Amino acid sequence: MKIILLSRFCHKKGSRPLSPYKLAFTVIPLFGVLMGGALWAGYQMGVSEQPSAVVVETTADAVHDLILSQREEILDTKGRTQEHLDALALRLGQMQSHILRINALGERLAKLGKLDEDEFNFDEEPARGGLDSSETAQSVSLTDLVSEMEQLSLVISDREHKLNLLEGLIRNSRLAEELVPSGRPVEKGWVSSGYGYRNDPFSGKKAFHRGVDVAGKKNSNVIAVASGIVTWVGKKSGFGQLIELAHSNGYVTRYGHNSTILVKVGDLVTKGQPIALMGSSGRSTGPHVHFEIAQNGKTIDPAKYLRKKR
């Protein structure tokens, strides 16, 4: 093989013969240099692209961490919300129990006050109404709802306290009424002899009658005209089978001429309770009850007490 050499300076040309061995030693190093340069360029390009891959990986890690943080925050918020809901449910249950007590108190007061049960029906929702304001209405926030529930709880507690006091006053008033004599000592009967001077039914002479006689059917109920304690039971001259009851404010009532006595000394009797059966024991002309009222040791005319309702 020959290599032709040209020179523009000397305008000469020539050729040199190359053997295969010389050609190999010439081309192979040149090829190696070219390949080395290409590898070096590829390496430099790879190094220049490496930071971009690192940035992408770092960004992915940051997004992953952010998602985990938001997930934990959502779970924490959900837990706190559930705690608030549980607290509200507990508070609501307490308010419902107070309302049930208030309803029970209201029903008792309606009965004690003898009010119209249809008008004061605590099982029905109170009647309400008004114009449609849905267009301007606003939803209640959780904070406002909690505040209104607390205010309502205070009102409920206040009303419950006042109703308890009112019930106590009514019961005390009713108790006072129970302890004061009123009404007739029989379920059915009529006044056959009044209080004061009268003609004695046996002698015909004027004599002072310290009570009233109420006639009725034999063995009908004789009832207490006031709550009290039995202080005397037994036979007494002229009165036959007698019962004496002690009441408040110095009142004493006596029931005579009974056929059968239903109570004993020391018994606590209530107003309207049967205490004996009507008879004609003692100095009597027929079935009736001799009824006396005394206050502070002195007998008084029972007429005005008989007219009072039990």
Automatic annotation (TrEMBL):
CDD domains referenced in this protein's UniProt entry, alphabetically: M23_peptidase (cd12797)
GO MF terms held by the record: metalloendopeptidase activity
Top-rank lineage group of the source organism: Bacteria
Domain M23ase beta-sheet core, first and last residues per copy: 208-302
Ranges that cross the membrane: 21-43
Keywords, comma-separated and alphabetical: Membrane, Transmembrane, Transmembrane helix
Record carries keyword Zinc: no
Keyword Transmembrane helix attributed: yes
Entry protein name: M23 family metallopeptidase
